[in-house]
Amino acid sequence: DEFVKINKENSKEKITIAKRIAEKDSKKEKEFWKIFHAAIKPKRNAEDIYAKIANLDVLFLTTNCDGLLVKHFPYSYSVDCTREVYSKHSKEEYVFCLHGNWGKGTKKEKERLIFTEDKYLSAYQPGNSLPVFLREVMRDKTVLFIGYGLNEFEIINAGFIPAEQKGPLKHYVWEGFFDYQKEFCY
Fold first, then answer.
1. Residues 28, 17: Cα–Cα separation, whole Å
2. Mean pLDDT by 10-residue block, N- to C-terminus, for the chain (186 residues)?
3. 55 with 90: CB under 8 angstroms?
4. Which terminal Cβ of the chain has fewer Cβ within 10 Å, N or C?
5. Phi/psi zone of residue 153: left (φ > 0), alpha (ψ -120 to 50 degrees), beta?
6. How far apart are CA 185 and CA 177, in angstroms?
7. Which of 150, 93, 85 is nearest to 159 (CA)?
8. Strands, DSSP E only, in 9-102?
């Protein structure tokens, strides 16, 4: 099988290679999307965790395209992460899907997904709507990053470009660690 098994390590590169191989043959492309969809399906207890997170009265930003957070806000989410959409919804419970949302897996939804190297490079170019959006949010809001997706430095870098802050905002990371790493955690 030509497809690379997707795991957490170097998944962006592996997905990019697999997608490029798949695009050359419609049968392989169909199989790619089948494997991709299976990879983003909720794992055991994921629904419970998202239900608890969704109880927070905050603005959500997610890079996950699995739709689990969106499920709790079916009419309060957008894949359009722009300054204009943010200004309309910045004071309410709302979900911004930074890298798209699988939804029903339509052609349009697939095209909007940001998960390959070329899509990341394009989306996070300085001055594009996504970095501008992230800077705006991080200027206005206290941010808590949750999860292992923090290896996506494009997001953090785009948001931490010096900007004029409106107040003493903080940005936090909530990430798992091993016992031997305690001394490095605050």
1. 13
2. 49 87 94 92 77 86 89 91 92 91 95 92 88 87 66 63 59 67 67
3. no
4. C
5. alpha
6. 8
7. 150
8. 59-62, 77-78, 94-97
